[in-house]
């Protein structure tokens, strides 16, 4: 279910608690109280972004999964993990592949609800109304199960740039684009 801004405010504590439960697990291992407070504050700000969307799935009236995102505007952001994305892809590819596309910022499925198709359903619902379903996301290179999931549902990892020795530029992030995004040349 796609949420309105009012719905998000009404469910803010539930969404933040779900975030904390998910990200307290390996490989993230975040402190649940700190994670909940941090995400609650962040979600309040993120909900004001142009093109912001959020979706939730519920089981027995409780959040089982959630997803959030927004349109990527120019200039490309320089906070959080965005500098690592720019380093890995280069300014030109960021401009052509990511700016203007929808960024899936968070996708979370609670442990007891995994393996039921909720992650794919959240992604599909979140980007259903996005022009040409042009979307992207990043995840952490240590999140192997998450990387495997995105590959399994057809999202494609963007190849990192290569340095002067021909080695790929690698850092802590992995960038994926939605199945609808055309292959790079």
TrEMBL record:
<dbReference type="InterPro" id="IPR000182">
    <property type="entry name" value="GNAT_dom"/>
</dbReference>
<dbReference type="GO" id="GO:0016747">
    <property type="term" value="F:acyltransferase activity, transferring groups other than amino-acyl groups"/>
</dbReference>
<feature type="domain" description="N-acetyltransferase">
    <location>
        <begin position="1"/>
        <end position="185"/>
    </location>
</feature>
<protein>
    <submittedName>
        <fullName>GNAT family N-acetyltransferase</fullName>
    </submittedName>
</protein>
<dbReference type="Pfam" id="PF00583">
    <property type="entry name" value="Acetyltransf_1"/>
</dbReference>
<dbReference type="InterPro" id="IPR016181">
    <property type="entry name" value="Acyl_CoA_acyltransferase"/>
</dbReference>
């Amino acid at each position: 279910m796609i949420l309105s801004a009012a719905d998000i405010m009404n469910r803010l504590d539930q969404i933040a608690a779900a975030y904390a439960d998910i990200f307290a697990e390996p490989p993230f291992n975040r402190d649940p109280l700190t994670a909940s407070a941090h995400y609650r504050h962040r979600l309040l700000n993120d909900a004001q972004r142009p093109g912001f969307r959020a979706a939730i799935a519920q089981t027995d009236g409780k959040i089982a999964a959630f997803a959030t995102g927004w349109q990527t505007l120019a200039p490309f952001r320089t906070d959080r993990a965005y500098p690592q994305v720019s380093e890995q892809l280069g300014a030109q590819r960021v401009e052509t592949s990511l700016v203007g596309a929808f960024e899936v910022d968070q996708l979370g499925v609670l442990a007891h609800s995994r393996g039921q198709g909720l992650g794919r359903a959240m992604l599909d619902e979140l980007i259903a109304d996005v022009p040409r379903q042009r979307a992207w996301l990043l995840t952490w290179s240590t999140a192997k199960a998450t990387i495997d999931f995105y590959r399994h549902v057809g999202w494609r990892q963007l190849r990192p740039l290569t340095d002067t020795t021909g080695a790929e530029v690698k850092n802590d992030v992995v960038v994926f684009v939605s199945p609808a995004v055309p292959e790079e040349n």
